[in-house]
Design goal:
disordered C terminus; globular; 79% helix
């Protein structure tokens, strides 16, 4: 089981690298291609949009051919995407490269959820969900700390090229996806109650919108608005990732113990409101509160996937887990696609303060939607159920 958990964490780490690279290398990319903040936001949006479009196909492939086959294929595509980003000579070709990377980098959730549903009994999956999502944040932490320094020393293209190693190692260790456990009895799972499909998807979309804006623009905000150096501003993402490593593990571990499975989603949305308000107030109050906001983002905002995916896996099995994941993940990616473009547009047309206050409203709505999901917990027996 140790090797199985390690593989899940590694796959999630590989999938997180594209978003992290765009975020912490934002200053280099804007200077390299002479683009606006809205155009930079488009890169992050394209990454999400491609992931959203490809998610149903990835889910169908995973449920039909198995998690191991899909894992190897998508990690290979991720590696090709990293190589394309590293050599893209123009902004237009960078958009194409990011599109390719998006196919692989957003596929970790349906694939790893399929593997968990195949081998881990329902009601005991929280720990493994926490482990795999902590792995994703380990990737974010490592990339946010390493990439800016490597970019300064060797150029941003070389730093992106080095990321190729991660998905290739994932392919090499994919044998660990066969943990020597019996396949979970399909008749024993698949009957659990989940919150109403559309409420959960709406919560996912709102959290995706807010999370993507924070990840994409927080380093740029620290550099442009508060005068932080590139490396110090990038460390904000590292701090978020550091807290998220622990919080994702804990949200997953304790998630099975809540009587209402969506309670963690409500707590995460409220924490996100407090985080965003702290970030918005930092120019007036001082840089220390910016670090507090980043820490709260790690505890709440960036931990959504651990809690959200555990809700999805409640009652799922190896034949429907990837499809169930895709339904919610498409909602999350839909919001993630909109977030950076909308935030960048708000900054260009108004101010950073306006953009951050807009996110406060988004996270408040996410909390309201979850309250509705809590009260409707037994309305549907499956995420693919009635609408």
């Amino acid at each position: 089981m140790t090797g199985f958990g390690f593989l899940l964490a590694w796959v999630m780490a590989a999938g997180a690298l594209s978003y992290t690279a765009l975020s912490v290398l934002s200053t280099f990319l804007i200077d390299e291609f002479a683009i606006s903040r809205s155009s930079f936001g488009l890169l992050v949006a394209v990454l999400s949009l491609v992931g959203m479009i490809s998610a149903p196909g990835v889910a169908a492939l995973t449920d039909s051919r198995g998690g191991v086959f899909a894992l190897r294929l998508l990690l290979g595509i991720t590696a090709v995407g990293f190589a394309a980003i590293a050599i893209a000579p123009t902004y237009s070709l960078m958009v194409v490269a990011v599109m390719l990377s998006g196919i692989g980098s957003t596929s970790g959730n349906p694939i790893t959820n399929n593997l968990i549903a195949s081998y881990i009994p329902d009601g005991t999956r929280g720990l493994m969900v926490g482990v795999k999502h902590s792995g994703g944040q380990l990737g974010v932490l490592a990339a946010s700390l390493a990439l800016p320094g490597l970019a300064i020393a060797f150029g941003w293209r070389a730093s992106v090229a080095l990321m190729l190693v991660v998905p290739l190692i994932g392919v090499a260790i994919s044998k660990l996806a066969e943990p020597g456990l019996e396949i979970v009895d399909l008749e024993a799972v698949g009957r659990g109650h989940r919150p109403h499909k559309w409420r959960l998807i709406a919560n996912a979309g709102l959290m995706g919108l807010g999370t993507s804006a924070v990840v994409a623009f927080l380093p740029l905000y620290g550099h442009q608005r508060l005068g932080m150096s590139v490396t110090r501003a990038s460390a904000l993402i590292g701090l978020i990732a550091g807290f998220a490593i622990v919080s994702r593990f804990l949200w997953g571990w304790y998630g099975d113990r809540f009587r209402v499975v969506t309670t963690p989603l409500l707590l995460i949305a409220v924490t996100s409101v407090l985080s965003t308000m702290s970030i918005a107030l930092s120019p007036a109050v001082g840089i220390p509160i910016l670090w507090v906001g980043a820490a709260l983002a790690g505890i709440g905002t960036m931990a959504w996937h651990a809690a959200g995916m555990l809700v999805v896996l409640h009652g799922a099995n190896s034949h429907n887990s990837a499809k169930a994941t895709a339904a919610v993940h498409v909602g999350f990616l839909g919001g993630w696609t909109i977030g950076p473009v909308a935030f960048g547009f708000a900054v260009d047309q108004a101010s950073y303060l306006t953009a951050w206050l807009g996110l406060v409203i988004v996270f408040c709505l996410a909390a309201i939607v979850v309250v509705g999901a809590n009260t409707a917990r037994t309305e549907s027996a499956s995420i693919e159920g009635r609408t």
